Amino acid sequence: MRLLVTGGAGFIGANFVHATVREHPDVRVTVLDALTYAGSSESLAPVADDVRLVHGDIGDGELVEKLVAETDAVVHFAAETHVDNSLADPEAFVHTNVVGTFTVLEAVRRHGIRLHHVSTDEVYGDLPLDDPIRFTEATPYNPSSPYSATKAASDMLVRSWVRSFCVRATISNCSNNYGPYQHVEKFIPRQITNVLTGRRPKLYGLGTNVRDWIHVTDHNRAVWRILADGELGRTYLIGADGERDNLTVMRTLLRLMDRDPDDFDHVTDRAGHDLRYAIDPSALRDELGWTPQHDDFESGLAATIAWYRDNESWWRPLKDASEAMYEERNQ
Ligand code: NAD
Ligand code: TDX
User: Fold this and answer.
1) How far lies 176's CA from each of 70, 128, 201, 264, in Å?
2) Among residues 99, 104, 152, 163, which one has the fewest Cβ atoms lying within 10 Å of its Cβ?
3) For the whole model, what pTM was predicted?
4) What does the alpha-carbon distance between residue 275 and residue 77 come to, in Å, rounded to a whole number?
5) What is the structure's pLDDT at 155?
């Protein structure tokens, strides 16, 4: 099987490529990645001999057409992904998430190629803190930020290409991922690397916002299950019952790093900050038999901290620029 992985030099995509090389030796992987600030060929270094990396933009119709013509399936991770960046400058989000997904869809339509589109639970908006209700496949879309609005738009394009053009596609909407190779702009790696570089960790607002954490390996195992046995046209929600508020995650992380759990700063809150995300993953578990292997968040977090300690050369070149950006925003 020949597999085209867009965004395979980013956090989740690189972990997906590593797992594919390890666990599916019969699959030939091509990565298409623009190597933006969020992508790095370093993340693919351990599998460099097993993977073809094409440096290019998913909005480049000619290039996408050529690569799709040479493949049997596409797993589409490429996106602009950081909510704070989308609030500061949304344009790249429209280009990559909307126009880029459109470009991929047109190519798979022309060549009759199977597509799996990777999306986020943020398309559903947020949930109240004081009600145990969770997102399901039937929850109406209600995105809050330019990031989630452009991901919602990309999901809608996929749904309409399935209905109108019989494109063979599935969609997954996953909750917050953590694990190795995540950019230091994101919550967990930012705090770990703040501690490792002698900075104080930064919590937005009071830290009452809840996220539903899943280890990246479990997300990617679900993507493989859906690619192999998912029902065409369906949306699957991926989550691992990992709800925690940000304050709790911060305090746990500091304790695991032998710091005082209150040794952090409260900084300016995010505009429009979503209160709570929570996924009901029943369909994925019941129909495709998926279960998360990392069911202990604290040990997954400890392993992630160890990875950042051991791989400073991967994240160190990104850190100062990332913090300079946050400083400009008083965050
Ligand atoms: P990331 O920002 O770490 O990586 C994105 C990758 O896409 C980078 O390698 C980047 O270079 C590449 N890219 C960006 N624009 C491109 C373009 N125009 N053409 C080609 N490549 C381009 O993101 P991630 O966290 O790995 O997320 C991957 C996917 O998973 C995204 O679609 C995201 O919406 C989705 N998702 C992420 C999470 C999460 O917690 N990180 C949760 C649910 C869903
Ligand atoms: O320094 C910080 N302090 C802080 O309190 C940062 C960077 C974040 N936060 C808060 C904001 C969120 O409530 O932590 C929470 C997690 O923040 P992010 O890591 O920016 O993730 P989030 O906005 O929840 O979105 C993530 O999950 C869904 C990914 O970035 C998306 O790509 C994915 O779709």
Assistant:
1) 32, 17, 19, 22
2) 163
3) 0.99
4) 25
5) 99
Distance 316 CA to ligand 2 centre (A): 20
Ligand of minimum distance to the alpha carbon of 206: 2
Domains in the chain with CATH codes: 2-178+213-238 (3.40.50.720)
272 CA distance to ligand 2 middle (Å): 13
Active site residue 122: yes
pLDDT tens-digit series, residues 40-70: 999 999 999 999 999 999 999 999 999 999 9
pLDDT, tens digit, for every residue of 125-145? 999 999 999 999 999 999 999
Kindly report the protein residue whose alpha carbon is nearest to atom 14 of ligand 2: 187
Secondary element (H or E) of residue 331: none
106 catalytic per annotation? no
- Residue minimizing CA distance to atom 30 of ligand 2: 82
Question: What is the rounded CA–CA span in Å between residue 172 and residue 119?
Answer: 6
CA of 87 to the centre of ligand 1 (A): 17
Tell me what pLDDT residue 279 has: 98
Token pair in block for residue 89: 């400058």
In whole angstroms, give the CA distance from residue 28 to residue 49. Answer: 11
Distance of CA 229 to the CA centre of its chain: 22
- Closest ligand 1 atom number to CA of residue 182: 3
Determine which residue's CA is closest to atom 6 belonging to ligand 2.
187
Counting residues of the chain whose pLDDT is more than 70, the rounded percentage is 100
Dump the DSSP string for 211-260: EE-EEHHHHHHHHHHHHHHPPTT-EEEE--S-EEEHHHHHHHHHHHTTS-
Task: Say how far apart CA 58 and CA 302 lie, in whole Å.
Answer: 35
Among this protein's residues, is 147 annotated catalytic? yes
Among candidate residues 50, 18, 10, 52, the one with its CA nearest the CA of residue 34 = 10
